[in-house]
Amino acid sequence: MIKLSPLFSGSRGNCSLIQSDSCNILLDVGYQYKQIVARLADFNVTPADINAIVITHEHSDHISALPYITRGFNTAVYAPSAICDYISQRTYCSSVTAIDGAFNTGGVTVDVYRCSHDSAACFGYRFTCGAESVAGVTDTGCVTDELIAFLSPCKGIMIESNHDVNMLQNGAYPYVLKRRIMSDFGHLSNDQTSQILSKIKGTAIKQIALAHLSEQNNTKELAFSAAVGALEKGGLTEGKDIDLFVADQYYNRITLC
């Protein structure tokens, strides 16, 4: 059994809970510590129950609670090797393991996907326990065949659908920031995510959570509509062949399993 529950997902912070029969893993800890603890309680999990924390990259919306959630707990922390020293300086009572490829923690095999993002390093992750896999990939600016292949074995995927291009282009962000977000080292747009979803027929994917939505440059309705259209283009029906969700910045009742 393997499950992925996005606790908080968006521009203000990101944190997800991965659970197997034998361990609890946090994917990123980029939200207010007290809020993370409160959400974990909904799953009957406390910080002491977290066996591992897996970090995607060093931006604050993915690591801001790290100093607090590792204080007093010898929790295993895993991070891309290029940012290992940086992450180590922000932990208490925890050792940080540098990773460049697949590893195992608590009986869960974790495979990595190298994202294209303006950070020192950024990984997406696939978590496998037994015959089942889930994956979380955000903060990448490119759709590649490798990304689709990485997601294909999973029953549930959390994939970035950060912005609507028209909203971003016509919004209040400075030009330089708009260029950054839309670049190959930025974030996936609704249209780019649709490219992925139109090609997943025949894969193991049955559940999808759209994640890391921008509060200023996207809406849940736009992201959901674009994804539904992409699934239909690829020969799949939402609600029948695929269960589609949109993760929220502040509160989610989504579990992919």
Spell out the blueprint of helices and strands.
Elements: E1 2-8, E2 15-20, E3 24-27, H1 33-41, E4 52-54, H2 60-63, H3 66-69, E5 76-80, H4 84-88, E6 96-99, E7 103-105, E8 108-114, E9 123-129, E10 132-137, H5 145-151, E11 156-160, H6 165-169, H7 175-182, H8 190-197, E12 207-211, H9 220-233, E13 243-246
Parallel strand pairs: 3-4, 4-5, 5-6, 10-11, 11-12, 12-13
Antiparallel strand pairs: 1-2, 2-3, 7-8, 8-9, 9-10
Helix pairs in contact: 8-9
Give a brief rundown of this model:
The chain has nine helices and 13 strands. It has 257 residues and is an alpha/beta fold.
Structural descriptors:
single chain; seven-stranded mixed β-sheet; alpha/beta; 257 residues; globular; six-stranded mixed β-sheet
User: Count of DSSP E strands?
Assistant: 13
| Backbone structural class | alpha/beta
**SSE order:** EEEHEHHEHEEEEEHEHHHEHE
Radius of gyration over alpha carbons?
A: 17 Å
Estimate the global geometry from the Cα principal axes.
Answer: globular
In DSSP terms (H or I, runs of 4 or more residues), the helix count works out at 9
Q: What is the end-to-end distance?
A: 8 Å
Give a quick account of the main beta sheet: strands, pairing sense, barrel closure. 7 strands, mixed
Specify the helix fraction band: 10-25%
Major sheet strand order = 7-8-9-10-11-12-13
**Percent of residues in beta strands:** 25-35%
Q: Provide the residue-averaged pLDDT.
A: 97
Low-confidence stretches: none
Report on this structure.
This protein has 257 residues and is of the alpha/beta class. 25% of the residues lie in helices and 26% in strands. The protein has 9 helices and 13 strands. The protein has helices spanning 33-41, 60-63, 66-69, 84-88, 145-151, 165-169, 175-182, 190-197, 220-233, and strands at residues 2-8, 15-20, 24-27, 52-54, 76-80, 96-99, 103-105, 108-114, 123-129, 132-137, 156-160, 207-211, 243-246. The strands form 2 sheets. The chain has a 7-stranded mixed β-sheet with strand order 7-8-9-10-11-12-13. Strands 1-2-3-4-5-6 form a 6-stranded mixed β-sheet. Strand 3, helix 1 and strand 4 (52-54) form a beta-alpha-beta unit. Helix 8 packs parallel to helix 9. The longest helix has 14 residues, at 220-233. The relative contact order is 0.16.
